Amino acid sequence: MTITAIEPRRKGLSALFIDGEYALKLDTEVLIAQRVKAGLEIDDNRLLELIKASDAKRAKNKAMWLISYRDHSVGELRQKLLKDYSEEAVELAINKLIDLGLMSDENFARKYAESLSHKHLSGRAIEQKLRQKGIDKEITEDTIEELDLDEKDEIRALINKKYIRKLSDDADLRRTVASLQRRGFNYSDIKSVIAEFTEIEDYYE
Description:
Layout: E1 3-8, E2 13-18, E3 21-27, H1 28-33, H2 44-69, H3 74-81, H4 87-99, H5 105-117, H6 123-132, H7 137-147, H8 151-163, H9 170-182, H10 187-198
Antiparallel strand pairs: 1-2, 2-3
């Protein structure tokens, strides 16, 4: 097979024409680095090497762009990259970022959990959100432990911020309790804290 033409395309890609016909698009920088030019004789193995090199380069570039936009967990980044690139290219890209110290699940979990704690979520709710990001159980548990949340304080903060006017009648109180439970707080803590505000322990049961 002979590469008969290489034509630039958008987004850093170039179109390869083999034996006079369009074949595929590869990363332009990879082609330059590999000294691929029109007139080059190429076999299937060499073409496969170029495809893999191009895929790896594009996956790494996309990964760098994604983490520059915001932090990602390894699992989250992997899921996004696999939509466009091979598993081999994705793993190479992720491992490169880890080796460079540009990402780690421990750091991501710590920062993400801290940001969630400012929203006054329970430890259980934060744990669920971390697991949804692909953080494994051990890292998640360690992260929650580091936060050292006082869940009653979080409930108090939420009541003062959102629910202080919704404790006066049974219907509002039930809705407040349900909303706090949806945030992952357990019923006994909710009951205890609401009693501090209403001075009536049982009328919302």
